[in-house]
Amino acid sequence: xxxxxxxxxVVLDGITKRFGDNLALRAVTVELxxxxxxxxxxxxxxxxxxxxxxxxxxxxxxxxRLTLGGAAASTEHSGPRAGVGFVEQEGGLIRELTGAENLIxxxxxxxxxxxxAASARIRELGRRFGGEVDPxxxxxxxxxxxxxxxxIMIVLARGAEVLILDEPTAALGIEDAALLNExxxxxIGDGGSVFYISHKLQEVLNIADRVTVLRRGEVTGRHDSExxxxxxxxxxxVGQMVSTDGGRSADGAEDLISVAIGQRARATHSADxxxxxxxxGIRAEAPYVGESALTGLDLTVRAGEVVxxxxxxxxxxxxxxxxxxxxxxxxxxxxxxxxxxxxxxPEHRHDDAVAVNLSVRDxxxxxxxxxxxxxxxxxxxxxxxxxxxxxxxxxxxxxGGSPTIPVSGLSGxxxxxxVLGRELDEGPDLVVAHNxxxxxxxxxxxxVREAVLGACDAGAGVVMISPDxxxxxxxxxxxxxxxxxxxxxxxxxxxxxxxxxxxxxxxxA
Length: 509
Fold this sequence. Notes:
The structure is a single chain. By secondary structure, this protein is of the alpha/beta class. It has 17 helices and 21 strands. A six-stranded mixed beta sheet has the order 6-7-8-3-9-10, sandwiched between helices. The chain has a six-stranded mixed beta sheet with strand order 15-18-19-13-20-21, sandwiched between helices. The chain has a four-stranded antiparallel beta sheet with strand order 2-1-4-5. Helix 14 packs parallel to helix 15.
């Protein structure tokens, strides 16, 4: 056994993977040491998740070598690989089952499975790693952070020594993200190892020991996290160079670098614009268990402004988003809705925005199939529909898409841009964007930012809900804070002390 293999618990050597004509991975080599957090960064479609799916046994490789725990392992293995736990971005639990039942199903324990014993194992791991969560209630009744902690405890209960986390903080608030970091530190302290996929570059530098950059299926950078900057990582991700003093290039990378380092976008708001919608004294039951109902909520959104909504996850954000989109009944109060269309970008695109097994064409046309130009008598004009779909793909910069491919064939970022393009195509008066940057790379974030600001320029009001204050500070003109279903305060970005936001999120009105 070589010294390298003695130190590294995982060696992915020369991994190549092709999907038809698309070369997703080209001879990629990455190692993971015991007790290490190794981050993988890159744009959507760079090959990060594909590489990790090869490691986890979800995909087979076309070429390359895998060493796991010092022993050779087959890259043609199909099915979950022992000792490797993969917590994917969209989650892998069956929502109608409890955590204990999900563990039993994963272990294929059969009809004689002991639910009480499975529950006890999850509880014990929760206490050990600081991720306690109730394993005896349906997963759908848990908040986002609790679901993620439960999934981590389940893969650990199955004996995972290598943990793969794909965009783990994309939907988490500050407290849940801090708790996740505590779980990771305890896990690696016990000798575990973590592959960490994220587009949040500063977060990566804070938590990872090493960083590998992927671009278009190839490695473009390898770094110790203490010896690289966010700007350098961003430039390697997007394929543009920056000057050695951290200055930006003049060849189109400036906007992408500014997104990566969290610089604020241009302001477009005029305070004189008329309201597009008003909520007064709104009461509405929560659509999910663990989510706050709205209790006496007041909010006015004006044309041409971005209103950011901050708050601890579960404070009523999902309820507010669905009320604004017209998808949830108001129990009391008055909602003066926009006169025109409402664009809705939901938090969970796979649940509420796209049908992943249907074609791009079907997903786009479901909002506009009654347009006269799309029909000829009782028949659809497929040529005109496809022309319209292609226009949206081009305008929204959806890469790798065509009207006929299933949405599942697009990367997460391109799925999000497709949803945004479809919704904005209606010329909305109001845009409700719930965590719109979830799991997006810097290029996709820039595209989404420009689309949102373009809607503002056209006179729409935007409500942007996010657990990430940095995202809100980049786009919002003012930020309102939700706590227990009520707006407890408002801050003007650039004028108020940001400590005020923290106090408001804690319920100090």
